[in-house]
């Protein structure tokens, strides 16, 4: 696990781009939980961190595909393939991510 940032630096339901061991990751805080997904839309290969977060997940700004924060699965077209979801741990107010462990 690699420390990425302080939990307090994440705004609720606002994408946050980070690089973890040369892997581009988007973090999304949802209350006291944090989700980490690959920061690359599986349909158009653009950064998900530039999109918006809704009740359905994180939405790609280019074509509107939405990815579930828990599973990485797309809930709307045109994407049909999921994005990777990574293990997250919050310790002593800091967010740690392990890009070697996918949870989907």
From TrEMBL:
SUPFAM superfamilies: ISP domain. Residues 2-97 form the Rieske domain. Gene3D superfamilies: Rieske [2Fe-2S] iron-sulphur domain. It comes from Lentzea miocenica. It holds the Pfam family Rieske. It comes from the Bacteria. This is Non-heme iron oxygenase ferredoxin subunit. Keywords: 2Fe-2S, Iron, Iron-sulfur, Metal-binding. PROSITE patterns: RIESKE.
């Amino acid at each position: 696990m690699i420390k990425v940032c302080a939990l307090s630096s994440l705004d609720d339901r606002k994408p946050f781009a980070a690089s973890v061991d040369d892997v581009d990751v988007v973090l999304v805080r949802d209350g006291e939980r944090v989700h980490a997904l690959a920061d690359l839309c599986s349909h158009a290969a653009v950064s998900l961190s530039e999109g918006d977060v809704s009740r359905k997940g994180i939405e790609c700004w280019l074509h509107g595909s939405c990815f579930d924060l828990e599973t990485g699965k797309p809930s709307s077209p045109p994407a049909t393939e999921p994005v990777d979801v990574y293990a997250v741990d919050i310790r002593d107010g800091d967010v740690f991510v392990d890009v070697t462990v996918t949870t989907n």
